[in-house]
Fold this sequence. Notes:
By secondary structure, the protein is α/β, with parallel strands linked by helices. It folds into three domains: 2-110 and 191-197, Rossmann fold; 117-183, no CATH class; 204-303, no CATH class. Helices cover 62% and strands 8% of the residues. The chain has a five-stranded parallel β-sheet, with helices on both faces. The longest helix is centred in the C-terminal third of the chain and has 34 residues, at 192-225. The two termini are 25 Å apart.
Amino acid sequence: MEHVIARLTAPLPVEVLGRAGVGRRTVTAALRDAGLTVVDGSGAELAVLVIAEALKPEDMAAVAAARAPVLIVLNKADLSGAAGGGPMARAQVLAADCRARTGVPAVPLIGLLAGAAPDAELVAALDVLVHHPADLRSTDAFLDSGHRLGRAMRERLLARLDRFGIAHAVLALGRGADRETLPGMLRRLSGIDGVLAAIDQVAAPLRYRRMRSALAELEALAVRSGDERLSDFLAADDTVLAVMAAAVDVVSAAGLTVDPADDRAAHLRRAVQWRRYGRGPVGAVHRECAADICRGSMRLLEIGRGAP
């Protein structure tokens, strides 16, 4: 049983793909810093395709050739343009267009800022810019215009934060931020939390299939061994509700809504709704999910507990 549990709880291996120059290494570092397991090669169960500025034919080909579910990450979102509410808002529009063209989820990211933690020297340089603003309209303007901050330091700032990060860091410091709070602000600005949430959604069917496979193996083991404790575990309320929760994640990731109410009428209504859904023209995974949501709802109705 231990080896089944080990497989069930093993981290999901992610592969990062992308053309040269899109920031693949930067995104890889950001995902690893966030705790994801990034691998190279055939062991990946999910692919993160990094693009920049626009979707190219090579990117479309990579989506078509991927052997795992794909999430597109539109990196360097700060370079998307200022029209329509600023770079990140514009990047959201571009990401939506990528999704429409490819059929896979897409989210923006400023990978350079995801793990940015300016050291004391950089923070001091940024503080100089608070009191003595520099020309940030372009990289050349920032580097070539006369300023009391040395060119070498301005080059360091660009390498670590780029113009967008510099501008927002200067604003934050001017409003009272300090070296300790600056990394959190830059992380929020980067969009990495949205990337991680999107990965979690894309991975929902993978987690569900892992769980169903593990349960099938445990059921076979229970029959062979006659172990009543294993049979009791498979039939336990917590097991049924855990499977229901995994199924809810799958259908929610597909854009469907599962009634979260936890009264008896809601449990019965949910069970009827998803039993009907599972009998309709849906794929095998959604049919299994519907059965598990129905089963969990009936168990909740029986034991009088809240929905997971």
